[in-house]
Design a protein that fits this description.
The N and C termini lie far apart (114 Å). 77% of the residues lie in helices and 0% in strands. It is rod-shaped. It has 267 residues and is mainly α. The protein has one domain (2-11, 28-237). The chain contains 9 helices and no strands. α3 (38-81) runs antiparallel to α7 (146-178), α4 (85-92) crosses α5 and α5 runs parallel beside α8.
Length: 267
Amino acid sequence: MPILTAAFLVILQADSGAAPSGTQGPSALLEMLSNIGAVAMAVLVLLLIASLYSWTVILGKSSTFRKATKESRRFIRAFRKASRLQEIAALATDCKASPLAQVFEDVYETYRRQTGGTGPPRNLAPIERSAQTAASEAVTSLERRMTWLATIAATSPFVGLFGTVVGIIDAFHGLGTAGAATLRAVAPGISEALITTAAGLFVAVPAVVAYNQFTARIRIFAAAIDDFCRELLNSLEEIPLRAPAPPPPRNPSPEPSREAAERGLYK
């Protein structure tokens, strides 16, 4: 930041007779915004759009993860208490936000195609592949729009820095045009530089914090999904074979049936 340091030194060595600004607070900020150039204004508009989109992603992801956590806890408790897969299938339709319920629905559909919904699976390999695919799709769904959040977090400071450089250029240009080191000559350019720098940081910091928090929560969801897949496959393997139907009771009557009597007549 040597350019910024030099600019501040110029301001500190400015003419002592320069008139100080009489406006303070929000009015001073509005005055600075009204005096910035077209390039700085374009940078601020771009950062404003990025900030609005990042906060949309942050609020949306927060709501999604909160609902997914709540429904996943409800689903896993019911899964461990249930004695039949049909009961869990009915509950899974009410827990659409839970990635565990999404995995169960895909695995249960593969299981139904094999067995019709009862009895042990004939071949566990297709069910395992279905569980892996469903787990990958669930994690991918949780990661949706996270790349935009990371991009905004990484690029916003550089966009603000571009405005900073343009503001410093304007400050030195005003200094050269005025021919004297006065506040009036350099203040507009320095204000542009500081405003765009602050705007870039204002956009980047929440996006960085949210991205790191969401990434950690996605890792927790991924681990929970893997554990649930193993638990579900173990439950399918432990399904017992259906007991054979009992033999029909013998006819207690000693009299032969008509068909038996006819066979006895013509044998």
